[in-house]
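User: Show me a protein chain along with its predicted structure.
Assistant: Here is one chain, sequence first, then structure tokens.
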Amino acid sequence: MNDRIVIVGMGEALWDMLPEGKKIGGAPANFAYHMSQFGFDSCVVSAIGNDVLGNEILDVFHEKNLKHLLEKVNFPTGTVQVELDTEGVPCYEIKEGVAWDNIPFTQSLQTLAFSTRSVCFGSLAQRNRVSRKTINSFLDAMPDGEGQCKIFDINLRQNFYDKEIIENSFNKCNILKINDEELIIISHMFGYPSIDLQDICWKLITKYNLKILILTCGTNGSYVFTSKEVSFLETPKVIIADTVGAGDSFTAAFCASILKGKSIRKAHKLAVEVSAYICTQSGAMPILPEILKRRLQ
């Protein structure tokens, strides 16, 4: 790795087993790939197995010129069985005991943390003690700074989360991204009586001293909250191929915009447009049109 890498997607790297065949996936990998499309030096941090599927992940990352720090471990490469409903919305069956559950905290990873400006992590890769400890060690090793983004894209899946993990992550991040269904789960978990989603968002911002909270509500639009403003945008109506990876592209476009000095509103607008485009494509890592990438120039 070199000193120019400053954006990291950390956690699961895996294969989404879609009805039409397997496609590379995992929220951190999706995030890092889209950050690279916007011209940032980005890196995927995860683990793969000593197997064919792991080697195929390496091949895809090389093909996409996506930098990576993938440790080979003695567990199988992760897979997710994905079934799509009639609206193209995915349902996941995530295999356990896989490589990305066992990401080691190596000297190379510590060195990368020292030069990382922004990181995106979630709750899923923290379901196992090994990767959870590595993610927290990485966050603690990152330098402090005004322009630093620690994005917790909560990404609740199946039963792979608990209150302790989530609260610790709230305390570690300064940007939280959550969807409306996840916010309702969190409100019950933390005992927030209000049924007003915006009210719950303000509670989280205040309690955990968040700089930014992003709330996505599917076809009902999305919000970006800061201590000084609220931005709301409707979700564009598009012909959906599938929604796999759309949220990760939203996070990447928003983060890229903020790091380029764009306003919250402009960052929000680009994030909405990029995620809408991803929904028109199959899989999580399509090539973005130049017209979208040029918006950050």
